[in-house]
Amino acid sequence: MQVSVLFSGGKDSSLAAILLEPFFDVELVTCTFSVLPVGEIARETAARLGFAHRVLQLERSVLEKACDLVIGDGFPRNAINLIHENAVEELAADGHVCFIADGIRRDDRVPVLGIPCIRSIEDRHGVHYLSPLKGYGRAAVNELVSRHLLIEEGQSDSIIKADYETELREIIRKRHGLEKISEVFPAHIQSRVIERKSQARPEQADRHD
Amino acid sequence: MQVSVLFSGGKDSSLAAILLEPFFDVELVTCTFSVLPVGEIARETAARLGFAHRVLQLERSVLEKACDLVIGDGFPRNAINLIHENAVEELAADGHVCFIADGIRRDDRVPVLGIPCIRSIEDRHGVHYLSPLKGYGRAAVNELVSRHLLIEEGQSDSIIKADYETELREIIRKRHGLEKISEVFPAHIQSRVIERKSQARPEQADRHD
Predict the structure, then answer these.
(1) What's the Cα-to-Cα distance from B157 to each of B170, B184, B187, rounded to whole Å?
(2) Residue A128 pairs with which residues in a beta bridge?
(3) Is the ipTM of this complex over 0.90?
(4) How close does chain B come to A19, measured CA to CA in Å?
(5) Digits of tens for pLDDT over chain A (209 positions)?
């Protein structure tokens, strides 16, 4: 069974892929609007993690709509959700995709797909949508991340990664100027995966501890 | 890292343990009020799954309170939640336990612990509470179960397992008679695990397909 994991190069989507790996053939999928080379950035990280990777082109109109939403709302939540829902829909419409996963955690407030939205996508396309970290709190995720990944963390404007926010910030910068970004995006800590600590099964690694 | 998985002998808690196995040392924990030999039933299933197992004795007063709740409410939801919360609290209070898991799925309505309740337990006891199936819908769980487990399914009054409902039904039968059970417990399909389909890693199994 193959699972397509929406992949930003951050710790959550990386850990989601690692948790699925013993049970699925994992392919990482990074969405892009081709505003910035986020596909390439993610491809490098995916290679370091040892997973297959592909780039999924999303409609530029979705990013434009998301941009309008951020500016109208004054915060990015609805815009990020719009992009995420669109990404899952796009993957689900691919006839070869059966399992779709993301890195959403229990405590995440954005992106989050509501249950009715998830069920609608699952039913219309005959796919399964998985959030392997949905039952994990922040501290548990961090504990597992520290065992499996070497990460870099920093303020969201200093970390180059391949999440939805990266291209959303860029289109806002182009259209509304740099100051607008700090006005609508609350500063928050982002993570970028440097490498995987061990390709070996954790229990095998334990034996060598 | 050890994880203690609350285990009923059903497919959900069994699958939760299987999903955690590559990343944790799994011990299965079955709660009992010693009204019925549910610990023994679960121990046999755990042995067939190849996991360590222990029985956790819960206070009889909790079952009695749960019984009063079912009778008062006319449905078992709050009673089952009370027992589950008590089981997680009891495990969390064990100084040796750091990760606690259960088999709650995305679509489950009972038992469910609310986020504030989970955070309270995590913070007070310094533990992590995991629901590995929380991001999996019913169909995805069934797909994984069919790959990893041989199960028996039947109406809830015909399947002998080690879930909270088993002893709750028994105390209601003793106190209020057999008819009361069908009055307050909606008939539903239960599962019991017969055996594990493969002890090998799924990707290893795939190679032999």
Answers:
(1) 11, 13, 8
(2) A99
(3) yes
(4) 8
(5) 999 999 999 999 999 999 999 999 999 999 999 999 999 999 999 999 999 999 999 999 999 999 999 999 999 999 999 999 999 999 999 999 999 999 999 999 999 999 999 999 999 999 999 999 999 999 999 999 999 999 999 887 777 789 999 999 999 999 999 999 999 998 888 899 999 997 545 444 444 33
Collapsing DSSP to helix, strand or coil, A13 comes out as helix
Hey, which residues 3-22 in chain B have their CB within 8 Å of chain A? 19, 22
Q: What is the pTM of this model?
A: 0.93
The label of the residue with tokens 């749960």 reads B66
List the beta bridge partners of residue B195: B150
Cβ-defined contact of B137 to A118 (cutoff 8 Å)? yes
CB B182 within 8 A of CB B165: no
Question: Is B51 within 8 Å of chain A by CB?
Answer: no
First-to-final CA distance of chain A: 32
Distances (CA, A) of A69 to A102, A110, B145, B165: 23, 14, 41, 48
C-alpha A159/C-alpha A155 separation (Å) is: 7
Going through B49-148 in order, the beta strands assigned E by DSSP cover 52-57, 99-101, 128-130
Give pairs for B78-82: CB < 8 Å, separation 24+.
B79/B168, B80/B110, B80/B111, B80/B164, B80/B165, B80/B168, B81/B110, B81/B111, B81/B112, B81/B113
Q: Are strands B189-196 and B149-155 parallel, antiparallel or unpaired?
A: antiparallel
